[in-house]
Design a protein that fits this description.
The structure holds three protein chains of three kinds. By secondary structure, chain A is mainly α. Chain A has helices at about 5-35, 45-75, 85-100. Chains A and C meet through helix 1, helix 2 and helix 3 of A and helix 1, helix 2, helix 3 and helix 4 of C.
Chain lengths: ~100, ~230, ~110
Amino acid sequence: MRQHASYWAFIVHRVSGIALALFLPLHFWTLSNAMQDSIAWTNQPLVKLGEWLIVVALAAHLGGGLRVLALEFLPWRDWQKSLAAAAAAFALAVGLAVALAL
Amino acid sequence: MKVRVQRGESVQEFEVPRQPSQTVLDVVTYIQRYLDPTLAYRFACRVGMCGSCAMTVNGVPRWTCRTHVDRVGDQLEIGPLRNLPVIRDLVVDMREFFDKWARAKGEFRGARTKADDFAKVEPQSAQRVLVDKGIECIGCGVCYAACDVVKWNPDYLGPAALNRAWTLVNDVRDERNPERLRAVAGDAGCHACHSHVSCTERCPKHLSPTAAIAGLKRAVAKAVLQGDL
Amino acid sequence: MSYRTQAVLWIAQRASAAVLALCVAVHLATIIYAVQGGLTSAEILERTRGSVGWFAFYSVFVLAVTLHVPIGLRSICSEWLRWRGPSRDVALLLFAALLAWAGMRAVVGVFA
């Protein structure tokens, strides 16, 4: 069944939210430990990949969240349909920026 | 062309002649008149005014009288509207749809009587403009069939009922308003909407239940923060 | 759960979302700065330990997360897992407590 942009924006928002909810306790725990020991183990590729995925999930979730806030609080306009695209672009931009940094 | 029609649990295939300017309603009507008189379906005006002919066409809820075969291609799959119980073939039971309309207090009640003067409602006032944006709903059920939250949450009042409630929240003549906000708040009401915007996308009258529901969320929040609810 | 409670949850979710949008932006910028600067954990800790400002900032961050995540999970539980009622809400409260504990433990470890 065909779906439209706003529906996919919702799915990305929800799935990224689930990923973050599952990841955050781990992130808090890792942080406590990494600060105790050397931060060097965070240079392992798998950890870097995990952290990058989390940042992308965060950016995607934030983008999607801004879309929801715009729909709920700003006066209705036709451009609100393009918010899904804006959210996606934002997530991509952050993901790339962080990838470069890592 | 081959047309597949959902009939209860099974799908029946029919061979229907292709005509110029043919609508999906024409196709269904041809099947019932010439191929299988037992096919049950609804229609009335057949000119895009009543909403009775709403069905699922290639996965999308639409008015079949306003859906040209040219537009959707001739690999047609026709089924009843989703999210509502099926009575038979392409006919659904709309009672739950209208019951939810009533639960959302989707009915006008004014305080004036014949003895009072007319209510003065300024057409360009902010509130009336909001009402006018949503008032043309004819209760066809397409938005309700399109909504995933309706699918996932059986108590959810749905886009049409909430859209109507919003028009009444903004109707300065209506006297049921704090009560109405209570009726539309909560897990079964406006707060269950996640802005998929499927309702707005599919509405044949180009209404925006998404905007109406967002308005209800703001109105409820304001009432809660002001202690009015 | 009364409609008023549900309305308050909606308000809390949007408010915490706004707070998180800010916190996440600051956090990401800081992390990118730290990583690009090639700071070691000792160097990072030197800058963060004893910082009242950063401690306060990250405590607000953790509080906002503790509100936002369980309210978000609530809809997912009822819509995708068909889990409704008091048991779901109790489970979510416990998860909120877990997030608060783990979060503050990390904050204390880095900023206290």
